[in-house]
Amino acid sequence: MTEPDVIAQLQRLTSRLDALIERVRILSDENRSLRQQQESIVGERAQLLSKNEQARSRVEAMIARLKSLEQHT
Questions:
Q1: Band (51; pLDDT cuts 50, 70, 90)
Q2: N or C: which terminal CB in the chain sees fewer CB atoms within 10 Å?
Q3: pTM of the prediction?
């Protein structure tokens, strides 16, 4: 291999490495963003489950009061 061939090959490798490094950076940023979104969604889901449970409890309490009123009339 001649020196220009070696230099050209090294330049190609350097270019490929730079592209790979950039791709890793982009994927890392996307991964971080997706993890943040997932945390947000998990938190939102927990809040919705809690609200759903509260609503269910209130509805059950209302039903119990209505049944109690029916029995007294």
A1: very high
A2: C
A3: 0.67
